[in-house]
Amino acid sequence: MQFYSFWRSLAAFRVRIALNIKGIVPDEMITVDLIKGDQREPAFRAVNPQMRLPALTDGDGPILFQSVAIMEYLEETRPEPPLLPKDPRGRARVRALSAIVTSDSHPLIVPRVRNFFEHELKLDEPTRMKWIRHWVNEGLASLEGHLSRDKETGKFSHGNNVTMADLCLVSQAASARFFEVDTAPYPTVKRIAETCLAIDAFARAHPLKQPGAPQNLGH
């Protein structure tokens, strides 16, 4: 197994947590430096023509990409410990909570969007940051609205066991730290994120624990 990652990639962060929870140690961890533009080099474009992280190989077959698809693959091929509930309604809720982050919030703040604003639309830094913080807050507010209301919320996003929703929630909390967004208005999200990060599988996957990471987060 080969895993293509970078410390700053929040999508790769989600998959690193899943690998740790499942007890999977890739044979090779390959760093793709998004800051230097390694994702645009021919070597990585041959891996993922979309030029995005993460990517994963696992024996023969096509290269896996997109964090949710990779987490679902790991769940299907290494089902223990599970990252999805057993019941259909619970699985749907966990997937929906995950999608708040992976579909509705995170895609709007990734480097290619920020670079387009800067280089093509010529938006200044304060305007770009206003956009980013707005969508980080929107994601946090949506999570808080569901988690604080639903009786299915427990110690974690869904009951008292870690699910894929928690992996996504923690990456959203990390995004808030990247861009200096206050999480105090979202106490349920904050509580669950702190609970998760006290778990070794989450802590070891943290962006600042990865090769090449700086001392402190910054945008």
Structural features:
single chain; globular; 219 residues; Glutaredoxin; mainly alpha; 9 helices; Glutathione S-transferase Yfyf (Class Pi), Chain A, domain 2; four-stranded mixed beta sheet; 2 domains
Strand order of the largest sheet: 2-1-3-4
Give the helices and strands as they follow along the chain: EHEHEEHHHHHHH
Helix content: 40-55%
CATH topology of the largest domain, which one? Glutathione S-transferase Yfyf (Class Pi), Chain A, domain 2
Number of domains: 2
Shape: globular
> What is the residue-mean pLDDT, rounded to a whole number?
95
Low-confidence stretches: none
Q: End-to-end distance, in Å?
A: 31 Å
The percentage of residues in β strands lies in 5-15%
Gyration radius (Cα, Å) is 17 Å
What structural class should be given to the helix and strand makeup?
mainly alpha
Number of strands: 4
How would you characterize this protein structure?
The protein starts with a strand and ends in a 16-residue tail after the last helix. The protein has 219 residues and is mainly alpha-helical. A four-stranded mixed sheet has the order 2-1-3-4, with helices on one face. The protein folds into two domains: 2-81, Glutaredoxin; 88-203, Up-down Bundle (Glutathione S-transferase Yfyf (Class Pi), Chain A, domain 2), CATH 1.20.1050. The chain has helices at 10-22, 42-45, 67-77, 88-105, 111-119, 125-149, 164-178, 187-197, 200-203, and strands spanning 2-5, 28-31, 55-57, 64-65. The protein contains nine helices and four strands.
